[in-house]
Amino acid sequence: MAGRSKPLPPPTSVAELLGKKVRYRREELGWTQEKLGGKVHVSHNRIAQIERGTDPPPGQLAELLDVVLGFDGEIVELWKLLANEGFKDYAKTFLKRQSAARSIHEFSLTVPGLLQTAEYAHSIMEYGDYTEDLDDAVRRRVERQHVLDSEDPPWLWVILEESVLFRSTGSRTIMRDQLEHLVKYSERPNIHLQVLRTERPCVPGSISLLTMHDGSRGAYTEGFNTGQFFEDPKDVEQYQRIYDRLHADALGTGASAGLIQAALRKHT
After folding, report:
1. Is 91-266 in CATH node 3.30.870?
2. I need a labelling partner for 55 at 20 to 30 A (CA). Which of 65, 66, 198, 238 fits?
């Protein structure tokens, strides 16, 4: 029998309650985190995250845990409560996954957050309904970009809709600095930019596809004031197909670089 770990503090969230139930049932069965992970096809580190309540399971994994641990629907019901919480704070899970992703593929109607200058981010975010301090929100967005400067940065592939480049967001100076920032980052071997011309079919929002180091995947979609993160393979596949169509219609990286330079001259 595996030894019981020290008692957990009382749960303060649905995620912690779910994790506590998973851990106690696992220990009752005498299983290690490695053994449970093997039964539900994830790493022991992923089980540890679930048990701590720091990164709760997606729906499909919640169903597997429910069956394997014999909860008779209890874990699934807790996951449904988590999903409702996640709808209110829809970007939290995506941002956590993005910071640890092996590869990121994005289509966006604005410059995506990982490539925004602070001034451009401020210009975009001031149109939103922020209950927090705007300067603090901008600072935290810029801080998340540090992942691109890590020793093992993600593979980042971005498709931008053409009008993003020629629209003077904030001011001509802000836009010129933003485009120079794009040119600088596109010179990195792990970052690729493509432009979708305005006459090509488009979608009314952004799409982000994440691939984690363990091979798991997620898809995030966002409109003006709403978004949703998906981890069910069927949902991810659906958004992968949409992204693939946009990618097929986009200019190549060389032609895209030329168009970014043309836009830069416009804002000079």
Report:
1. yes
2. 238
* Dihedral-angle region of residue 205 (phi above 0 means left; psi in -120 to 50 means alpha; beta otherwise): left
- pLDDT tens digit sequence for 71-117: 999 999 988 787 655 444 557 788 888 989 999 999 999 999 999 99
What is the CATH superfamily name and number for domain 14-88?
A: lambda repressor-like DNA-binding domains (1.10.260.40)
Global model pTM greater than 0.85:
no
Contact 172, 58 (CB under 8 A): no
Give residue limits of the domains in the chain.
14-88, 91-266
Residue 82: name the closest of 239, 233, 229 by CA: 229
Distance in angstroms (rounded) separating the CA atoms of residues 173 and 170: 8
pLDDT tens digits, one per residue of 100-111? 999 999 999 999
Average pLDDT over residues 215-237: 86
Tokens 């912690």 sit on residue: 16
